[in-house]
Amino acid sequence: MIQVAVLGYGVVGSGVVEVIEKNQEMINKKAGCEIQVKYVLDLRDFPDNPIQSKIVHDINTILDDSQVQVIVETMGGVEPAYTFTKKALALGKSVCTSNKELVANHAPELLQLAKENNCNYLFEASVGGGIPIIRPINYSLTPEKIEGITGILNGTTNYILTKMQKEGAAFQDVLKEAQLKGYAEKNPEADVEGYDACRKIAILSSLMYGKNVKYEDIYTEGITKLTAEDFTYAKKLGTSIKLLAISKDMGDKYFAMVAPFMIGQEHPLFSVNDVFNGIFVKGNMLGDTMYYGRGAGKLPTASAVVSDVIDCARHLGKNILCFWDSERVKLTSINQISRKFFVRIKGTVEEVLPKVEEVFGKVSVVTCEELPEEFGFITEEITELSFNEKAEAISGIRSRIRIEE
Amino acid sequence: MIQVAVLGYGVVGSGVVEVIEKNQEMINKKAGCEIQVKYVLDLRDFPDNPIQSKIVHDINTILDDSQVQVIVETMGGVEPAYTFTKKALALGKSVCTSNKELVANHAPELLQLAKENNCNYLFEASVGGGIPIIRPINYSLTPEKIEGITGILNGTTNYILTKMQKEGAAFQDVLKEAQLKGYAEKNPEADVEGYDACRKIAILSSLMYGKNVKYEDIYTEGITKLTAEDFTYAKKLGTSIKLLAISKDMGDKYFAMVAPFMIGQEHPLFSVNDVFNGIFVKGNMLGDTMYYGRGAGKLPTASAVVSDVIDCARHLGKNILCFWDSERVKLTSINQISRKFFVRIKGTVEEVLPKVEEVFGKVSVVTCEELPEEFGFITEEITELSFNEKAEAISGIRSRIRIEE
Fold it and tell me: ipTM, 2 decimals?
């Protein structure tokens, strides 16, 4: 039997308890032994809930109990999760987490600690919620040199963008609706500013390179500046606008960023809508693979955590190889990266296009009947630096959206 | 160091040697030790090829060499692969295979043999080519009760159907083109009659249930009867026609089948085109997940085989849990399954619809200008048995395609 302690009885933590209860038979079979939740650590008490019999308020009750072999950390945030995780691993107790903040900040150290103590630090739930993505990268794509990862990694923003696309609604209105439905937090900054997606692509990039990609080094732009008008053009062009997290191994340089992108119908992420996530991984031998599913939510995320618990049970006393060294990856500046840009500009085609083409060279023009006082154009492929310089030289630019092909 | 022997230097076998050579550094790192191909078994000699130095013609050279710990079986077909695999496993040598025929026929016995001898029988490449699907089911979806799997599992037929859809071409013409391009075999029966997809869904179903689903029990219908006219209606309806392999755990009964289905744009498999495969897995906790990529091809398939070799290296002397008992799953007859059907019928709506609705009740009618001498209709949800009985009662039915929603 494996005794488990759950740190934090919030959404995911209570989901873990629920998944272990509901699918007990299946889980015990797959683990090769019985999995039992012995403790739940929380500051609160839950007097009317059967979980109360397992609630403890002192982490040392868990750390001091040699029967506890696996710890589920679903507290979120760096502290005290970081301290608790280090103590647990140092005692040879494996830790399974959904805490992307902690993973993005301290994984190399925690993985090393797990290795030294013949236990495991697993974090399947930290990216893509219920979508198996960490384990496919670590266990399945092992013969591959991964050349790139492109993902829709945040369900909240994808829900908002899908609504804006389908209903022509404004950002603020959709955000409010998402908050009412519980799809967005009261303080939505981490989602809508792209910070959440940034931490997730930092984790995936680190696994892709085997070295440490610091999220602070990743250029990140959120979706707050997108307007209904941007989507009017997207519709006209047959494209959609998605918050993409991109990481690319360009041979001589590494690159990662998070920003809204226009993508065409042929792009495999085009039809990833609503709260779903999709992650596209390109390997040098097998080409493109994609993983799709619910990127958040209580039970999907909890299921991913429990899959880690089962993996720990299968590898008791044995560290599973995971390559994420502390050496920091130097990312190339976004300025050096080339792509096409979609631009909206004030004025009529007749008046303004000559100036635009004087600066940008040949562009493709797109006009929308609904927006007679402006038009859109798509540049040829140019570097970000060059785009910014040229854009400075023209007045009346209302927005620009990068294009991913 | 792990010494590997490859049985069969055909497309996949030579791909395995190529992947191990090209990504050697990555593979050794991920395996935790050096992986080296020591022998290649083939009836032929390859005098102008460096591989010749490793070619052997007698399986006993490999079986008798205690240095060989992992065997790659890429021979295809049941014999002699079956005999060779049994001998290898009995000696404690792990076997990694791309041979879906052998897996679909004998996996329970071979898995048991591997277990008894503390080695492994792995078959990631047997379904979905380069797409990680076996390992996600066995290692990642472990806490889930899998309720259903729906897949496009055959690249050849998906290529043909995509061409028919996009170009309005006839089946025979597209098949010829696919044969010229090497996407279809000279004898295309296994692909176009659905036999290949049938074996693959038998494998996935067995892993889903943990018991043995015999492919002979799975109702299988190929794509040879589909015509350009069927796709004219599909276009009009905004749907596409795909060869789907479906397996469902309906609580009180199990069900599996392979057949062409009409699917709408909202279906996640709608945009899986050309030689790509897509596999949709529904779990009771995490809901829908999808896996997408190249379902065939030398290097993608070889990469999947090498991922198994790495897994064997990581688990030397230790059997990895895999649940596929020999107990045969009793599948429910297709006759009991309900769904909507699309039907093409000779005659005009005015003349024939009354008779159609007398038999089928209310139907939705669809007409195509290009096909004035016939029309199409979609039934309400009815069982297969009931559909067949009703269809018998009407003359002039030209084709019927099941609808998957």
Answer: 0.94
